């Protein structure tokens, strides 16, 4: 349907192919995850959010997820951890996981971005009592 509409608009062959591959990518994403980049309440430094995993797009099996190609980079006070979620059976890369940690002022800042695990941000005070959490006395 939509591919035929593109043909009538006189777009280049390269754009048609890009649109076709985007459609295939969206169909694959819908087979892999219940919700891609879903909003989460916590950031995962390691592990996988398996409740969001449907099955591998390559072998169609749902099994444990391996963590591979883990890398840590420390730059300008920000720690960046990246790794791949891989299918246990066929080693297909299911998703790329990115986790950051930094200290800003008096808070530890965490972020996570992953198609499987979702996206999340968190901030925790380095002080014993978080000034944002204290209730007024009166």
TrEMBL record:
GO function terms (MF aspect): zinc ion binding
Pfam families, sorted: Churchill (PF06573)
Keyword annotations: Activator, Developmental protein, Metal-binding, Transcription, Transcription regulation, Zinc
Source domain of life: Eukaryota
GO BP: any one term: positive regulation of DNA-templated transcription
Family: Belongs to the Churchill family.
Protein name: Protein Churchill
